[in-house]
Amino acid sequence: MAPQINPSILSADFARLADEAKAVEGADWLHVDVMDNHFVPNLTLGVPVVESLARATDTPLDCHLMIEAPDRWAPQYVEAGASSVTFHVEAAAAPVRLAREIRAKGARASMALKPATPIEPYEDLLPELDMLLIMTVEPGFGGQAFLDIMLPKIRRTRELISKHGLELWLQVDGGVSASTIERCAEAGADVFVAGSAVYGAEDPVEAVRALRAQAEAVTKTAAWACDH
């Protein structure tokens, strides 16, 4: 799969969300961070805003739920118009059942892991997912510095995906920019969430194009992609 760039609306101007969504319509997805001030120490937006965004843009919505009780709330984000919904395994009571429910409602099911959460205990769950998200910062705030110590975890996750022959997207979120995206791609990521690197740029569309070009160049020669 060609690398995908998902601008994070968290770094946009919340007073102009419809315009900000349109400003990145060349992107593959629009990443929507949902925070509840419980699972993470921040509060952002919820179902009504996702519904409005879905009406305002043709770019599919990739909703990342940093919330408690995702088993209860995740299906509502599919109904609100999200094409992909990510829940945190640390917060889910029944991750397999939740992934299946998200898929049954017509969206892609994704599971996120915080930096300290290892991938290995969840190897058997991977076939139930469409995407796995490795957080490369602590969830809860935008603009954090990329954690290089997550690169081995990305590599181990890609090895597990290859081991099982899965068509599973591997997303990274946190501190992704022109200076870090190549390392992520080389390690095995193929979906990249970029916030300030896109919305902080003078030309967000060009920023998306440039990030995608960087990831594509590395992916062509990455050992994991050649083996795949």
UniProtKB/TrEMBL annotation:
Sorted alphabetically, the Gene Ontology cellular component annotations on this record are:
cytoplasm
Q: In which pathway does it act?
A: Carbohydrate degradation
Q: One of this protein's Pfam families, by short name?
A: Ribul_P_3_epim
Identify the residues that bind substrate.
S8, H64, G140, F141, G142, G143, D173, G174, G175, G195, S196
Q: Which InterPro entries match?
A: Aldolase_TIM, Ribul_P_3_epim, Ribul_P_3_epim-like, RibuloseP-bd_barrel
PANTHER family, from UniProt?
Answer: RIBULOSE-5-PHOSPHATE-3-EPIMERASE
The biological processes this protein is annotated with in GO are: pentose catabolic process; pentose-phosphate shunt
Molecular function terms, GO-annotated = D-ribulose-phosphate 3-epimerase activity; metal ion binding
Q: Which residues form the active site?
A: D33 (proton acceptor), D173 (proton donor)
Q: How is the cofactor bound?
A: Binds 1 divalent metal cation per subunit.
Q: Which cofactors does the annotated protein need, by name?
A: Mn(2+); Zn(2+); Fe(2+); Co(2+)
Name of the protein this chain belongs to: Ribulose-phosphate 3-epimerase
What does this protein do, in the record's words? Catalyzes the reversible epimerization of D-ribulose 5-phosphate to D-xylulose 5-phosphate.
Q: Which residues bind a divalent metal cation?
A: H31, D33, H64, D173
Family designation? Belongs to the ribulose-phosphate 3-epimerase family.
What EC number(s) does the entry state? 5.1.3.1
Alphabetized, the UniProt keywords read: Carbohydrate metabolism, Cobalt, Isomerase, Manganese, Metal-binding, Zinc
Q: Reaction catalysed by this chain?
A: D-ribulose 5-phosphate = D-xylulose 5-phosphate
